[in-house]
Design goal:
Leucine-rich repeat, LRR (right-handed beta-alpha superhelix), 25 strands, elongated
């Protein structure tokens, strides 16, 4: 129930967490003097104004940065230096504008980037594909636009396991070229099946204010702890067109796939039957034709299946 302006922490502080309060006003520039910070969490307050330009380069120890669910505006600062320790960045649920800063490519340890629910106007940040540890990329509910071209490398986004591009203005064909490079979506890591993505990074357990929101089984769902085996793609509510490529069947570890609210045409590829881990499939609100492939009956974990508002014919398997 803390109110008023954000208290400035002492320079020697290591963890600063004031989430879920009623703090108002701007983020003071003096926070840039806290050069020992490893966790900075100001989420779920009523902070306004712009983000200080020192963000990302004032502390050599900073691993978690969470400014989500505030009223921050303006651009995301560009300053991210080489050697940064940043693992998780959450700037979602604000009023941020402009592009995703290219200097994020310097954050070689980054595992999660969430800038969802802002006013960001940019093309697909393909250069993030060079980050070797990036597992979660949330761009939902922004003003991203343009086509997603094929990757320049066969190793783009090698560890990506959660991608949400929903509710933007992407056009052109589905990014089938990336289906070949998303290695983590193709094979199950048996060793880490019972581990969480970001639970053990910060030296203490039960750090629960860092969360992401995905629409799963038709319902917006908040995920606090995410198992390393959870794989999800949401490309819904854009302006993609053309057919669903057969290559999507290579992503055999997918648990959730949403391709709804587009102009997708042609038939439902039978290769979707290879997605044996799939629990939720939504390809509704398109212009798909033909029959529902018999191969989809092989997906024994499927709990949510939506093909409504298409031009499908024939029997239901």
């Amino acid at each position: 129930m803390l109110e008023g302006s954000l208290p400035v922490p002492p320079p020697s502080i290591g963890i600063y967490n004031v989430a879920y309060n009623k703090l108002t006003g701007k983020i003071p520039l003096l926070i840039c003097n806290a050069s020992s910070l490893s966790v900075l969490d100001l989420s779920y307050n009523n902070l306004s104004g712009i983000i200080p330009q020192c963000l990302g380069n004032f502390s050599d120890h900073l691993k978690l940065l969470n400014f989500g669910n505030n009223k921050l505006r303006g651009p995301i600062p560009q300053a991210y230096k080489n050697g940064t320790q940043l693992r998780m960045i959450n700037l979602s649920q604000n009023q941020l504008q402009g592009p995703v800063p290219n200097s994020l490519v310097n954050c070689s340890l980054l595992e999660s980037l969430d800038v969802g629910n802002n006013h960001i106007n940019d093309i697909f940040p393909f250069w993030l594909g060079t980050l070797p540890e990036l597992k979660v990329l949330i761009l939902r509910f922004n003003r991203f636009h343009g086509s997603i071209l094929n990757p320049n490398s066969s190793f783009a986004f090698p560890k990506l396991q959660i991608l949400d591009l929903s509710h933007n203005g992407f056009t052109g064909k589905l990014p089938s070229g990336y289906f070949h490079t998303w290695t983590a979506m193709k094979t199950i890591d048996d060793v880490n099946q019972s581990k969480y993505i970001w639970k053990e990074n910060y030296g203490f357990e039960n750090y629960s204010t860092y969360a992401i929101t995905l629409t799963n089984k038709g319902v917006p769902t908040v995920y606090v702890y995410i198992l390393t085996i959870f794989i999800a793609i949401d490309l819904s509510s854009n302006r993609f067109e053309g057919e669903i490529p057969d290559s999507i069947g290579m992503l055999k570890c997918l648990h959730m796939l949403r391709l709804s609210n587009k102009n997708l045409t042609s038939h439902i590829p039978s290769s979707l039957g290879n997605l044996m881990q799939l629990e939720s499939l939504d390809i509704s609100q398109n212009k798909l034709t033909g029959e529902i492939p018999q191969q989809l009956t092989q997906i024994t974990f499927l709990a949510f299946f939506n093909v409504s508002n298409n031009h499908l014919t024939g029997p239901i398997p």
